[in-house]
């Protein structure tokens, strides 16, 4: 029976579209996942060790972060308005200053999410006479931002820098301003952008660099400023976008850069001022988390060590790990077949390990994979057991 409001034809159309998705193995499950700790969760009543979050530094449950959040939440929950109208409280102002100080920039501007920061920034910077060169495997929010901007979009591959250089040389004169946009850590395989190389190309052709440090902030660099710090290009990146929802353990997006950049975005980025501001308590939590990141580098070191350990275990188990730096906390284990990736992930779940299967369209056809995301709180034992079970499950399903 087709249920729901509205006309029947509409409901039937949805049912048939969903059926088609199911037949091509692209229908997504709506799971209920309750976290018990930074590394364990309950899924449908089953206790699992989770390798599925972006809580790389375990800050979603850090006592300082919890205290800051709870004290502020006792006063108010929602911001009640967009930042432009009445939603920008003293917590928001303090968080913007804290981000600017952390990033070493003149200024910073908050957005309701990392997704909104990416779409809003790209749409407001790239105008009709402009062009943008975007990496093929950039996050969906960067892709959407480029597509929704008024400028011309060119797509490049990070594995072909010479071709990128050629493309820009051929096109540069046709556009007023040209931008290059890249993730610094690619979320589907944990690889890093080669930022010095991209900056060289950008400098040669008078191109403005925009980077998304969503998975880099807190994780890479001596003080946690991400891949820009690790690769020593901070001073060459005029537009740095980040999120507070991953290693920072909270919610929200930001742009860090010059006062002029932040003022321009404050005036023009629609996803910022046509959306309610972050809850003040989230800002309080994020300020505390940035302090932990600045003061406690041990978490970052442990995370890197766990990532190395996991890769060594996976290699020893003869599993095909996609190449990425050893300390990257995102590890992709190639499966290939879409169905098999989902089956392996499900069987692993039944053994008490949550390692999501990733299929097209999130990744290229034929490259379905399991993605293991690490937290500094994972123990070597948890990692070893997960890899052991993964090897067993893959062996048994391929037999
Ligand atoms: C590379 C990248 N950029 C941006 C985002 C969006 O960030 P948020 O979850 O804060 O909206 C994500 C989230 O998955 C991401 O992986």
Describe the protein's architecture and organization.
This protein has helices spanning 8-23, 63-73, 83-87, 90-103, 114-125, 140-148, 161-171, 195-204, 227-230, 259-268, 270-273, 280-295, 297-316, 338-350, 380-398, and strands at 33-35, 40-43, 46-50, 107-111, 131-135, 152-156, 178-183, 207-212, 239-243, 253-257, 330-336, 353-354, 357-358, 368-373. It is of the alpha/beta class. The protein folds into two domains: 25-54 and 297-398, Aspartate Aminotransferase, domain 1 (Alpha-Beta Complex), CATH 3.90.1150.10; 62-295, Type I PLP-dependent aspartate aminotransferase-like (Major domain) (Aspartate Aminotransferase, domain 2). The strands form three sheets. The protein has a seven-stranded mixed β-sheet, sandwiched between helices. Helix 14 (338-350) packs across helix 15. The protein starts with 7 loop residues before the first helix and ends with a helix. The chain binds pyridoxal-5'-phosphate. Residues 113-115, 118, 139, 141, 183, 187, 212, 214-215, 243, 245, 253 line the site of pyridoxal-5'-phosphate (PLP).
Bound compounds, each kind once, are: pyridoxal-5'-phosphate
Distance between the first and last residues' Cα: 40 Å
Placed side by side, the strands forming the largest sheet appear as 4-10-9-8-7-5-6
Counted beta strands: 14
Largest pleated sheet: 7 strands, mixed
How many structural domains can be distinguished in the coordinates? 2
Q: What general outline do the C-alpha atoms trace?
A: globular
Indicate the structural class: alpha/beta
